[in-house]
Amino acid sequence: xxxxxxxxxxxxxxxxxxxxxxxxxxxxxxxxxxxxxxxxxxxxxxxxxxxxxxxxxxxxxxxxxxxxxxxxxxxxxxxxxxxxxxxxxxxxxxxxxxxxxxxxxxxxxxxxxxxxxxxxxxxxxxxxxxxxxxxxxxxxxxxxxxxxxxxxxxxxxxxxxxxxxxxxxxxxxxxxxxxxxxxxxxxxxxxxxxxxxxxxxxxxxxxxxxxxxxxxxxxxxxxxxxxxxxxxxxxxxxxxxxxxxxxxxxxxxxxxxxxxxxxxxxxxxxxxxxxxxxxxxxxxxxxxxxxxxxxxxxxxxxxxxxxxxxxxxxxxxxxxxxxxxxxxxxxxxxxxxxxxxxxxxxxxxxxxxxxxxxxxxxxxxxxxxxxxxxxxxxxxxxxxxxxxxxxxxxxxxxxxxxxxxxxxxxxxxxxxxxxxxxxxxxxxxxxxxxxxxxxxxxxxxxxxxxxxxxxxxxxxxxxxxxxxxxxxxxxxxxxxxxxxxxxxxxxxxxxxxxxxxxxxxxxxxxxxxxxxxxxxxxxxxxxxxxxxxxxxxxxxxxxxxxxxxxxxxxxxxxxxxxxxxxxxxxxxxxxxxxxxxxxxxxxxxxxxxxxxxxxxxxxxxxxxxxxxxxxxxxxxxxxxxxxxxxxxxxxxxxxxxxxxxxxxxxxxxxxxxxxxxxxxxxxxxxxxxxxxxxxxxxxxxxxxxxxxxxxxxxxxxxxxxxxxxxxxxxxxxxxxxxxxxxxxxxxxxxxxxxxxxxxxxxxxxxxxxxxxxxxxxxxxxxxxxxxxxxxxxxxxxxxxxxxxxxxxxxxxxxxxxxxxxxxxxxxxxxxxxxxxxxxxxxxxxxxxxxxxxxxxxxxxxxxxxxxxxxxxxxxxxxxxxxxxxxxxxxxxxxxxxxxxxxxxxxxxxxxxxxxxxxxxxxxxxxxxxxxxxxxxxxxxxxxxxxxxxxxxxxxxxxxxxxxxxxxxxxxxxxxxxxxxxxxxxxxxxxxxxxxxxxxxxxxxxxxxx
Length: 993
Ligand code: ADP
Known about the structure:
InterPro entries: HATPase_C_sf (IPR036890), HATPase_dom (IPR003594), His_kinase_dom (IPR005467), HisK_dim/P_dom (IPR003661), HisK_dim/P_sf (IPR036097), PAC (IPR001610), PAS (IPR000014), PAS-assoc_C (IPR000700). This protein is an alpha+beta fold. It has 6 domains: 59-226, Up-down Bundle (Four Helix Bundle (Hemerythrin (Met), subunit A)), CATH 1.20.120; 262-372, PAS domain (Beta-Lactamase, 2-Layer Sandwich), CATH 3.30.450; 389-503, PAS domain (Beta-Lactamase, 2-Layer Sandwich); 524-634, Beta-Lactamase; 652-842, 2-Layer Sandwich (Beta-Lactamase); 844-992, Histidine kinase-like ATPase, C-terminal domain (Heat Shock Protein 90, 2-Layer Sandwich), CATH 3.30.565.10. The chain is 55% helix and 21% strand. It is built from 30 helices and 28 strands. The strands form 6 sheets. A 6-stranded antiparallel beta sheet has the order 12-11-16-15-14-13. It has a 5-stranded antiparallel beta sheet with strand order 2-1-5-4-3, with helices on both faces. Helix 1 runs parallel beside helix 7 and helix 3 (34-94) runs antiparallel to helix 7 (167-261). The longest helix has 95 residues, at 167-261. The structure holds adenosine-5'-diphosphate (ADP). The site of adenosine-5'-diphosphate has 20 residues, from helix 29 and helix 30.
């Protein structure tokens, strides 16, 4: 079975492989294909052997089956024989008819089987063995028949005794028969064994053969396939060549006929480039006759700019690097003109492979070239225009997504086209601002649905630097698919960042202007050239309580409640400021009333004019309205106030005027006029010092001039001066000049003011005289009083010394009181004298070195300081201007107090310091004494004011009063700072000038 499968497989493989079938036919054609033949022979032998063996194996099997059958038959005969014997024996001992019949039947069958087996007998050896069987069977059958006869013819016993007596013979025949069976069977089994061995050998040989055959088949198939393929290709090539040759032969025939008649120029050209044959068309094209052209080389008539390329191609043809070439080039015609041609060049080779000639096909492309050049020019122009406008361009196949951008497109976002590759519509989406994509898509969809013809979208693109570039994309669907879908779109891509920023600026400006207009407290209304309201700022809105509404001009007045100054009558159209301005009038501070929707009436000052552009065209009109309700009220109040002021100004007893800083008299009050019998025209506008009052003397005038000058510098000036009254009598006035400052601190005007002080002056003079008299008296009195006092004291002291202890104790005490009182009186008188002297010194102010003054005082107080263990410190005191004696007295009093009012258990420590305060000095005398309670800090400077009893601290209460008087004489002030219990600090100032 296995063998059969293998065979079937191989056979089907061999027979059903088309390649093999084709290959076979090829192999049989190719005698020279040795490999294939050997392979075929080996294959055939192997196949023959295989099939032969296969056949033999089948015969062997058949034979073996036959032998097996024979053995079976022998076994059957033998078994039949044994059965017959059993039945014979049955009859022999039972004499029953049935056993006899059976014996006879078996005996008969036995004979038939043996006879039948004779057909199976083959070969002499078997024949001999069969003969033996037949003989021994016959012997045996005869014997058995004889025994049956005995049994039938005699008694059983007699028969049995005879049969037993024949036992040796029975054994002999039986043994002979059994041997015959055995021999035949042995022979047949031997034959069967032999056949089996042969079969196995055949199987083995065929299996090996199968493998070899398989390998051979694979090798054969592969080799054959390769060889066949090669061969097929070679053959195909050869066939092709033959075909080409055939065609070429045909073409050559056709060529020569068509060559001459060809509509395009044709030429055969030699290796050197010489025209060997030319057709009519070429001659016509170049303007040469055939005779003229043949003999020329193509190099001679080729434009030098094209020659190199042509020669290159020709060489490549010669080198068989190319089979043909095509180029556009220029020939010179006979008349020298240039003609553009398209040249197709091929080389023709002889059968032996040598070069034959070039064939040149020459087509006049001058018209096309010119058209192309024109087109190119136009394209260039367009490109230049596009480049000039700096526009990017794009082409987009909506269906395929194929996209083309120009270099400018890429440049706009800072790239080159190459850097953006591969370019698709996604390139755009990648760089576009994500917030703009949706808008762009919406616009695009409108284009696709045909809702809009053009795609126009401003969007932002990310520049290479990271910033956003505003671009304007405009495009249009230029072609549609058959089923109405958009196909090709073309468009431009323009950088509009600059415009965008300008637009931003404009928007900002507009927003700025609007914001500014809204912040103005002036109402602004604008109408356009048609007289339609265009702008209504916040203040206007607030004035009306109404928003801007486009209504006819006739209705403006009533709609917006524009009233006359009476606040009741509506304005006529021609009176409305905006209408007037629109009509070309120059409206200036026109007072109108506006009634607010709330009913309140505002007074408005309106000014306006036409708006014209730079060419003078009317653009509209603008009116600015200032709400003057408040200022009008204030104005009225001011008028009222001025009236009142004028009344006061003129009716006051003082002379009051108004000067410019340069001294020009602007105004003088009635009092001043009446005083000198003047009218305003006499003095107003004149320099003040030239006015009548001051003409009393040139010194007076000069002093006034310099005083005005000082006042113009910001100083307040006051002095007494005599001026003329109407009778030219000198009258003393207390005169002052008061500067008026503006917010920047500059003097804007000077107020001259004078009041009659003649009486005061007179009174003061007499007072001064009386004072002087008094002082003289006080001085004389105190001086004169001192003399008797001194005597009283001396005599009392004499009395005390001389009679001390001689009188009674009371008398001593009285004397002591008298001495003490007299001494105190002496001091008091000295102090009074000091006080009265202050300011009456006959000395003038001088420079005083305070260090020297204090040094003196140090000497003066040295004993006291020593006794008390006190110190007096001072350092770098200033040099001041003043009267020396009073200044010394000032310090002496203060130092004396500092020592006197020391704390009992603490040595006095006195420090004198000076501080420069620009226009004055500030000096201080500080001690560590008992201090002064805050409630007494002012009174202690009054005369005779004391805080202690004379028992506690002796004194007159005049010391600080003297100090105060001295300081004030020097235009200063004095005060005390103190920490009660830990010391006082007496401060005073002295003006530097
Ligand atoms: P007198 O010293 O003669 O009493 P003054 O006019 O000098 O008079 O002083 C007035 C009063 O001021 C003094 O009675 C004293 O109480 C107080 N006084 C003056 N100087 C000092 C000082 N340095 N410390 C404390 N108290 C002082």
